[in-house]
Amino acid sequence: MPSITLYASENHRFEAESFATFSTALAGLAREILKAKENNIHISYVTAEIGYGTPIYFEARLRQEIFRTASLMEEFTHQVDLLIKEKTGVSARIRCFSFDASNIYGKN
C-alpha cells in the first residue's frame, strides 16, 4: 500500500506516455509525503463511464500509520490536486482511505 486508482472519463483519459509521466510523479508524492516504500506503491488507471460527478476521480487506499496525520494527508491531497490539474486541467474528486494493518489481508 498505497493502492491508488485514478478513474477518468473517456474524454479525459491519459494517453500512455502521459500516464507514465503522471504515474512517476504520483509515486514520487507517495514516497516523499506518505513515506511509502517504492515496492508497496500500486497505481491503476481506469477509463470509466462517469454517470454523475467530476470526469476524474482519484482514490487512494493506504495503511494507517502514526506519522500519517491529518495535516500530512491534507498536504498529500493538495499535491495530488495540483498534479491532476497540471496534467489535465480538471479539478478531480480526491479521496483517501486509511486502514489499520490488522484489517488488511493480502498476498504479493
Describe the structure.
With 108 residues, this protein is an alpha/beta fold. It contains two helices and four strands, in the order E-H-E-E-H-E. The protein has helices at 16-32, 70-88, and strands at residues 3-8, 42-47, 56-63, 93-99. The chain has a four-stranded mixed beta sheet, covered by helices on one side. Helix 1 (16-32) packs antiparallel against helix 2 (70-88).
List the SSEs and their pairings.
Blueprint: E1 3-8, H1 16-32, E2 42-47, E3 56-63, H2 70-88, E4 93-99
Q: What is the CA–CA distance across the termini?
A: 11 Å
CATH class: Alpha Beta
Mean model confidence by pLDDT: 93
Total number of helices: 2
Largest sheet: 4 strands, mixed
Number of domains: 1
Under the CATH scheme, which architecture would be assigned? Answer: 2-Layer Sandwich
What brief labels describe this structure?
alpha/beta; single chain; Macrophage Migration Inhibitory Factor; 4-stranded mixed beta sheet; globular; 108 residues; 25% strand; 2 helices
